[in-house]
């Protein structure tokens, strides 16, 4: 059992850079060797000890199992900040491991017709229905980064039916939302997907992302999980412009 878990986590590690944020957003951490040890505690946002990120206590780093600390450090070094979902889930180490193993299995899957941007868009659209600010804000940021489209996720957040989506994306979101709303899923749903190049395995991928994040949305809900401030601005301004204005 322990071995299996370790194998799973090692896989997570090997794919670390693809795990949460693409290399293109790693900014100044980009090319550095990742041996830096992060010393601070995980419990607050931006070191502001008076502003909690959620309702449950976050364990001190020293009290957390090593595999969890290692993964958090890796994500933080590679991303430039540690998304609050890692801190919140560390309250339950066994669930932390299960959560990120499942997350990795569906989000970093290398087969099928869903791009990374497609996956993020499914999370955005369904998390709106589930009233989850953390998930909408974090995953719309990731959508902007992966798609290089700074406005589409915002459009989907307000009203996906009026967003500048392709017919393919529309069909994908229609299915994801039918799963999200627990509608009666029939053959017709699968046929509509097929008309846009999504086979049954792709339908599973869309359904599984919708389902997993419905669970994640609910955990964020009762734990009162707050998004990191970094997510709000990520991917809104093209990098060349950003560089030009800061030099
Ligand atoms: C820390 O958070 C508290 C509570 O939200 C806020 O009043 C205070 O201004 C924050 N301090 C800093 C330095 O951001
Ligand atoms: C779901 O749809 C199928 C096919 O149209 C139908 O036979 C079935 O009765 C429906 N089930 C429910 C619970 O509405
Ligand atoms: C339309 C499209 O991209 N179809 C591809 C979906 O994925 C399968 C296998 O993963 C490919 O064989 C299809 O070409």
UniProtKB/TrEMBL annotation:
Q: Does the keyword Chloroplast apply?
A: no
Check the record and name the InterPro entries matching this protein: AhpD-like, AhpD_core, CMD-like, Uncharacterised_peroxidase-rel
Which key words are in the record?
A: Signal
Statement: the UniProt record of this protein carries the keyword Signal: yes
Residues of the Carboxymuconolactone decarboxylase-like domain: 93-141
| Gene3D superfamilies attached to this UniProt entry | AhpD-like
User: What residue range is the signal peptide?
Assistant: 1-18
Q: Which residues cross the membrane?
A: none
Source domain of life = Eukaryota
Provide the GO MF annotations for this entry: peroxiredoxin activity
Q: PANTHER family, alphabetically? A: CARBOXYMUCONOLACTONE DECARBOXYLASE-LIKE DOMAIN-CONTAINING PROTEIN (PTHR35446:SF2), SI:CH211-175M2.5 (PTHR35446)
Q: Which NCBIfam families match?
A: ahpD_dom, peroxid_rel
Q: Supply the name of the protein.
A: Carboxymuconolactone decarboxylase-like domain-containing protein
What lineage, starting at the top, does this entry show?
Eukaryota, Metazoa, Chordata, Craniata, Vertebrata
């Amino acid at each position: 059992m322990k071995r299996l878990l370790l194998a799973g986590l090692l896989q997570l590690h090997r794919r670390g850079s693809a795990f949460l944020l693409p290399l293109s957003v790693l900014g100044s951490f980009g090319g550095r060797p990742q041996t830096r040890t992060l010393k601070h505690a995980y419990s607050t946002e931006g070191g502001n000890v008076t502003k909690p990120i959620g309702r449950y206590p976050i364990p001190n780093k020293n009290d957390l199992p090593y595999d969890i600390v290692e993964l958090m450090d890796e994500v933080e070094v590679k991303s430039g900040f540690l998304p609050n979902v890692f801190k919140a889930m560390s309250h339950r180490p066994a669930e932390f491991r299960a959560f990120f193993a499942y997350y990795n299995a569906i989000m970093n899957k290398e087969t099928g017709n869903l791009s990374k941007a497609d996956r993020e868009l499914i999370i955005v659209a369904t998390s709106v229905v589930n009233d989850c600010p953390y998930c909408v804000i974090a995953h719309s940021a990731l959508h902007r980064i992966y798609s290089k489209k700074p406005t589409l996720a915002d459009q989907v957040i307000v009203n996906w039916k009026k967003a500048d989506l392709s017919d393919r994306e529309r069909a994908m979101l229609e299915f994801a939302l039918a799963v999200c709303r627990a509608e009666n899923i029939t053959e017709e749903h699968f046929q509509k997907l097929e008309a846009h190049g999504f086979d049954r395995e792709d339908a599973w991928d869309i359904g599984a992302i919708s389902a997993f994040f419905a669970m994640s949305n609910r955990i964020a809900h009762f734990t009162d999980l707050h998004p990191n401030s970094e997510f709000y601005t990520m991917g809104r301004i093209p990098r060349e412009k950003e560089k030009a204005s800061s030099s």
